[in-house]
Design a protein that fits this description.
It contains 19 helices and ten strands. By secondary structure, the protein is an alpha/beta fold. The chain has a seven-stranded mixed beta sheet with strand order 6-2-1-7-8-10-9. A three-stranded antiparallel beta sheet has the order 3-5-4. The longest helix has 16 residues. The radius of gyration is 23 Å and the shape is globular.
Length: 474
């Protein structure tokens, strides 16, 4: 078969590919239905070539007999983006350092801390945590950290076990720490030093499986890192995974997600703990909270049908992005008190935005909405208050108001990358692949202009790239 012919999708393959998509989604828990069937067909072609089988015959076998363990990683690679780097999302890591590692190093709790990195990709995250733990402990006696990285992709795990990385993985590493953490290979790559490999292990695990096998002794983790993984899952699978995380963790255990991940099921189970613009989740004493709400990942709102937004190449060259991160007071969630309402008239635009973000970050969205509305009243021509108002309204489920605010924000400033990212996310969930891809492409192009060491922008860029990979290809 020629290369060009291999790209063609036979008509007789379409029904089987539709059933295969549903089968893969069920097996992996990841959203795949609605994806361009050509993508699935390419995976089938590659598998057929390696096994020297007829593609249509193999497709029939997969649908009839189910996916073998060897076939699962090929489809996982199709859905996921295995791009990560050391010390990714530094604010989250700083919060983990303050709330978990520092107390452990001081002797709090048992002498062993177990960390599970679920969806560890090529291993940068587990090694990062090992480096942080080593620095925090400083050789403290009677303190031991065990880190397990798991992933559904066998190829990623092999790379993780090798522990050798190229320059792109080091963009979050302080140059002064490179020689401390890594050895240079003859090829110029960086190999994780043996000190930081110690206590780190890797194994294959599919989060959609009925049973999760972690450490051999059957004991649970104290901390679960699952960053930028659940974004690929169907909503009902997100609820299931978070519930299982909660059931597995001991009291006082921690769940760490990516900053862009916000699911309503979290507030039903965990106590959010806020520090300097990041949130991690603690399992406290159980209590009855009523029926659990359906999860709704926070990705924004829907544009009205037929609404057009400028393409990335047509966007303004000069623009001002918005920071959706907390930069207010570092207080426990129950101690934060916004300025009295009667003083709001004297509060500046910047203060209104700061208070709105603070309240939203603490889950107090109704109050946050009021402060965002005050910001809009102060300056109705500013794009940032409109965007913030739209994002908060979306969290409250008022998508009509959110759509209006976000569209107005993009009209005032087409360079708001966060707004494009949010709109793309919701469009993707509604099956609007072209619209979603356009917004994610816009966000990528805008964010690529402001990198220059800006890790917050790079995080959003990676998220936009990951989400765009979920859109229909071709």
């Amino acid at each position: 078969m020629t290369k060009e012919g291999s790209r063609a999708l036979p008509g007789e393959a379409a029904p089987g590919l539709a059933r295969l998509a549903a089968l893969v989604e069920s097996r992996l828990g990841m959203v795949l239905s609605g994806r361009n069937p050509v993508d699935l067909w390419r995976v089938v072609l590659a598998m057929a070539a390696s096994e020297r089988r007829d593609p249509l015959e193999l497709l029939g076998s997969l649908v009839r007999d189910g996916l073998s363990e060897s076939a699962v990683p090929a489809f996982a690679e199709l859905i996921t983006v295995g791009e990560t780097y050391f010390f990714r999302e530094p604010r989250t890591l700083e919060t983990f350092q303050e709330l978990v590692l520092a107390p452990f190093a001081r002797g709090s709790g048992p002498g062993r801390l177990r960390i599970w990195c679920a969806g560890c990709s090529t291993g940068e995250e587990p090694y990062t945590l090992s480096m942080m733990a080593s620095r925090a402990l400083g050789g403290a006696a009677g303190r031991e950290v065990s880190i397990l990285g798991t992933d559904v992709n066998h190829g990623f795990l092999e790379r993780a076990r090798r522990g050798i990385y190229r320059a792109w993985s080091f963009r979050g590493v302080d140059p002064a720490d490179m020689d401390l953490f890594f050895e240079r290979t003859p090829e110029g790559d960086g190999a994780v030093r043996p000190l930081y490999r110690r206590g780190v292990s890797f194994s294959h695990l599919n989060l959609a499986d009925d049973r999760w096998r972690l450490w051999g002794d059957g004991l649970p983790p104290d901390v679960i890192f699952c960053r930028n993984v659940l974004i690929y899952f169907a909503p009902e699978r997100i609820v299931e995974a978070v519930r299982r995380f909660h059931a597995m963790l001991p009291l006082g255990g921690w769940l760490v997600l990516a900053p862009c991940e916000s699911y309503t099921v979290l507030s039903s189970l965990f106590t959010p703990v806020f520090r300097e613009g990041s949130t991690i989740y603690r399992k406290d004493a159980p209590c009855e909270r009523g029926a659990m709400e359906e999860t709704r990942p926070f990705h924004g709102v829907i544009l009205e049908e037929g609404a057009e937004e400028p393409l990335g190449s047509d966007l303004l060259d000069s623009w001002t992005g918005i920071e959706m991160e907390l930069d207010g007071a570092n207080l426990p969630p129950d101690e934060y008190t916004p300025p009295p309402a009667e003083e709001a008239g004297a509060v500046s635009l910047e203060e209104c935005l700061r208070v709105a973000r603070e309240l939203a970050d603490r889950g107090r969205h109704s109050e946050a909405l009021e402060w965002a509305e005050r910001a809009v009243k102060i300056d109705g021509r500013a794009a940032e208050p409109r965007c913030l108002l739209g994002l908060i309204a979306s969290e409250l489920g008022d998508e009509e108001s959110a759509a209006s605010s976000l569209r107005r924000a993009l009209y005032l400033d087409p360079g708001l990358a966060m707004a494009h990212y949010a709109l793309g996310g919701l469009a993707l969930r509604r099956g609007r692949k072209d619209e979603a891809r356009r917004h994610f492409r816009n966000a990528e192009e805008l964010l690529s202009r402001r990198l220059n060491g800006d890790l917050a922008a790079e995080e959003l860029l990676l998220a936009a790239r990951s989400m765009r990979s979920l859109c229909e290809q071709g």
